[in-house]
Amino acid sequence: MISITGATGFLGATLTSELKKKYHCVNIIRSQGKFKREFSKEDLASLKKTNVVIHLAACTSAPSTKVTSLENFFYESNVLLTQKIAKEAAKEGVKRLIFISSIGVNGTTTTEKPFTNADTPNPKSLYSKSKLNAELILKYISAQTGMEIVIIRPPLIYGGGSLGKFSQLIKISNSNFPLPFGKIQNKRNFIYVLNLTDLIINCIDNPLAANQIFLASDNEHISTTRLLRKLRQFLGRQNNLIPLPKFALEKTLKLIGKNEIAQSLCSDLQIDIEYTKLTLNWSPPISVDEALKETASVWLAKEKDLEPANRFRYMIRLLDIFFAFAGIILSFPILILVWMIIFFDTGSPFFCQTRVGQRQRLFTLIKFRTMQHGTPSVATHLVNDNKITPFGHFLRRTKIDELPQLWNVLKGEMSLVGPRPCLPSQKELIEKRASYGVFKTRPGITGSAQIQNIDMSTPEKLAITDAEMLANLSLRNYFYYIIQTVLGKGSSDKIKTSTQNISCKRKKP
Question: What is the mean pLDDT of residues 470-488?
Fold first, then answer.
């Protein structure tokens, strides 16, 4: 009998489906405790009848909720969890444990030589370090108990249901929008989910796999440019890859704080799997072209089931990036001029404020300052109009004060079109928006509420308007809201006038 942890994940679901053709399988489920870092006692009891444990369960990224220490989070999730399942398995007489580690244990990039299983570990991320620590603990338990350990270090896994970085590549490939990735001649290795599944199954019974470390890949390196061309070909899209020099792309991505993306797209990551092939008499059964074609086919089938608004969001993100980048470049002289005027007027050109973004994550919104320095950081409709500077009135009327938010758009914190981001203190609006699912998407610079002059003083009405806009958002509506805003439709949030304050005071007994 085979026991599997992480059976409900992308790799786990595929592996379980293949294993059931030959073996009896049991899923070991993590309990619903904090971060799901414990196994249920009932599932651990199944180890008594188990010959082989395949340990896939792991936390690959930081949680959405705040934790005291990310290092402790990964250690508890990936190291202690592995230690517990290994000790229980050894205690119950399990013959072999197969551990899916990560190529990140070897490092993040290669230069002259590809990674091999004999390399000295050089993990960089907290996740990779936790995987290395888990490997060391497994080796210790194996030496103490005699239970066989098999360690497999795969690179990025892809397939029709893949998540994370590879799904992002598929999303940007599934359009005819020009992309600046036409001149990236790097060399990277990936692994198709069915190829990895085949390798894991080989390691179940193969006596030569005992106590070995195996690197895994499709055994074909591919450049980012070729990968995107293949994906667009199989997705039925035009090539449209602009030959932007690699150094220019890297500099741009690093400038906006996307160092990890720059590394993934532009650097080399070559893996030598000769030892794996020779030791196990194994080769990846599916070629890269076949794997990418099947991946695109499954993705297209799933796309048909998506709501229209969900389909458009990938294209909208590409348009956001293009227009934000172009907007910053074209409006740069205006940005400098306005910056200088505000600097001599108030001494502080930019106004930075914490706002609530997608999934209720906080981010720093950037605008040109239109109010006097020292104005309370509250919702705009609660601020008196006498706090606005003379030049600030002009900026708000022409909407030039919003231009710096193009930087927020470029960073992925905002979209050009979406609900206006609120303050963390606006509890009622946050509750209303959460109930209507508004926080599922990025906030925007403009949208339906803006051109209809619906501001944050009416939380219920605003949340409903935002939800209706997102439910019906299409490329046509996207451009409609932008054009209406450029033509002057709508206005900024209402400001309390001085006369309103006076009249209110007179009404007091």
Answer: 87
- Residue 222 identity (one-letter amino acid): I
Which amino acid, 85? I
Tokens of 384: 């008196």
Q: List the catalytic residue out of 23, 127, 314, 436.
A: 127
Dihedral of CA atoms 81, 102, 16, 169 in degrees, nearest 10, equals 120
Q: Which residue has the higher pLDDT, 209 or 303?
A: 209
Residue of 479, 96, 114 lying closest to 323 (CA atoms) = 479
Cα distances (angstroms) measured from residue 130 to each of 73, 89, 137, 450: 10, 20, 11, 47
* Among 351, 356, 457, residue whose Cα is nearest residue 405: 351
Q: Give the rounded percent of residues in the chain with a pLDDT score beyond 70.
A: 87
Q: Give the model confidence (pLDDT) of 304-319 as tens digits.
A: 655 555 557 778 888 9
Burial of 17-52, coded b for 16+ CB within 10 Å and e otherwise, reads ebbeeebebbebbbeeeeeebebeeebbeebeebeb
Half-sphere exposure of 446 toward its Cβ, with a 13 Å CA cutoff?
A: 26
**Residue 383: pLDDT over 70:** no
Per-residue pLDDT, averaged over 267-284, amounts to 96
* Residue ranges covered by each domain of the chain: 2-162+186-223+269-287, 310-502
Residue type at 412 in one-letter notation: G
127 classed as catalytic: yes
In this structure, what are the phi and psi dihedrals at residue 244, rounded to the nearest 5 degrees? -70, 130
- Rounded to whole angstroms, the Cα distance separating 399 from 391 reads 12
Residue 448 buriedness (CB in 10 A; 0-12 / 13-18 / 19+): buried
Provide the pLDDT for residue 377: 58
**Dist. CA 440–CA 433, nearest whole Å:** 10
The per-residue pLDDT for 299 is 83
Burial class (CB in 10 A: 0-12, 13-18, 19+), 236: exposed
Q: pLDDT value at position 385?
A: 66
Count other Cβ atoms within 10 Å, centred on residue 220.
12
Asked if residue 140 has pLDDT above 70, the reply is: yes
- Segment 311-350, tens digit of pLDDT: 577 788 889 999 999 999 999 999 999 999 988 888 888 8
Q: Which two tokens stand for residue 231?
A: 């994906």
Q: What is the DSSP string of 200-250?
A: HHHHHH-GGGTTEEEE---S--B-HHHHHHHHHHHTT----B----HHHHH
Query: Alpha-carbon distance 162 to 294, whole Å?
Result: 12
Out of 3.40.50.2300, 3.40.50.2000, 1.10.3720.10, 3.40.50.720, the CATH code matching 2-162+186-223+269-287 is 3.40.50.720
